[in-house]
Amino acid sequence: MNANVSFRQMDSSPALRDYAVNKLERVVDKYVHGRVDASIVMRVEKFRHIVNFTVNIKNLTVKGDSSSEDMYSSVDLALDKIERQLRRHKDRIRDHKPSKGDRSRPFTMSVIQPPNLEQDSEFEEEFAEDYSRFSGEASEAAEAAPAAEAAPAAEAAPVDGDTKVYTSAKGEEIHLVRRSDYAAKSLSVEEAVIQLDLMEDRQFFVFTNDETDSINIVHRRADGSFGLIET
Questions:
Q1: Residue 151's pLDDT is what?
Q2: Verdict on whether the full-model pTM lies above 0.90
Q3: The CATH number of domain 2-95, selected from 3.40.30.10, 3.30.160.100, 1.20.1440.230, 1.10.275.10
């Protein structure tokens, strides 16, 4: 296993590093054979000891995070989540054969501030860790693809920085306060469904359909099934 451990807002701890990596290896070895890459981030916020695990297996990502008043307990709780996901999907992960090649395409996600919300509210890029950053150099497929045409929902007026203000039909101001570019990795529909199912706290996942080279979205439905949005 190739594991990268980082500490934020706290001192580096070799003991914590070894504990987290060794326990992760024991969990993963029960269900997975072959190359595994992992990222572990530990940080302290006031009295909360927070740990985030990101494990990449056969082009799929498994995540687990937790917080408590003790970092060792947080590690245990996060790894319990990862083991639960690996156990539930062990047959699908074992038999999974990753798509060949990477034809990732760029897409943009923005944070929109609804009317009557305070201007100085803080927004987090809660989905940023699910996707790699788009470098600005589009793939050949993306460069060749025509730009999508869509009618604007409202008129936009640029304001300070990258922020834009939209005026709704009711005359209310809607602020677009953050805009970030990401890369949607190339997956089959089946892979995308597996990926979303591995992400227990997510309602949708954006990917590049490896058959059509177009951006698609899989999402959870209220009845427990999955929906597919094709573009």
A1: 34
A2: no
A3: 3.30.160.100
